[in-house]
Amino acid sequence: MARRVRHKDHENHDRWLISYADFITLLFAFFVVMYAISSVNENKYQMFSASLTSAFGKQQTKPEAIVPTNEQDLLLKSLVDRRNAKLAEQQQEAMQDIAKKINQVMTELIKNGQVSVMQTSRGVALEINASALFNQGDAVLQGGAINTLAEVAKVLEQVDLAIEVEGHTDDTPINTQQFPSNWELSSARASSVVRLFIEHGLMSKHLKAIGSAANYPVTSNDTAEGRARNRRITVTILSPVPEKTTQAPKESINK
Asked: Taking the model in full, what pTM does it have?
C-alpha cells in the first residue's frame, strides 16, 4: 500500500483575535461599572447615610446641606428631619430627667447655696462649692461629702454618658509639698471625685478628671466671697449629641 502523506499543520495566525476580543469585552465592562458608580445620586446617599448614623446613635460632624432634586428626595429629607427632631427631643427630655434627679438628691446643699444644677449647651452641669467637699488647701473628701456624692453616683450609673469632673481654685497661690501650685490641687480634687464615682459603680472609661486651677472663675477674686465661690468642682454629664455652638448662656434649672 502506498504510504499516506501527512500534511503539515499550518499555524493559525488569527488566534490573537480571541484574546483581543476578551480584552475589549473586559474593558467595556470596566467602563460600564465606572459609569454606574459615578452616577450615584449623592443627595440620596447622604440622606440615607445620615439616617443610618442617627438610628445607630453614632456621633458625626454635620454634613453639608442637602439640596433635594425631586419629590422623592424631598420626602426622604422630610423623614430624616423628623427622625432627627424626634431624637433631639428624646435626648433633651433625658437630660432634663437627669437634672431633676440630681436636684432631688442635692436639695439641702442647693438650699444652702453650695450647689447649683444647670443645663448648658454641653449637657447637665452640677457645680459644687469646694467647701462642701474639702478642707481648705486639701483634696481629701470629707465624710458628709462622700455620702452626698454617693447619691449622685446612683443617679449617674443609670445613664451611659461621658462625664467630666473639673476642679477649680481661686487665684491665691499655693505652695506646699503636696500641692506646689493650684494646678496640682485642682487636679487632685477632681481625681478624688472621679475615684469615688468609680468606687460606687460608674465605669472609668466614661469619666475624665480635669484640673483647671484658677483659669475659669465664675466671679471676681477680689473679695473673700468671690474667691470662695470660685473654689468649686464641676461635674458635667455630656449630652450624647453636642450642640453646634461650643459656648452658650447657662440656664439655671434650680427650683
From this structure: 0.63
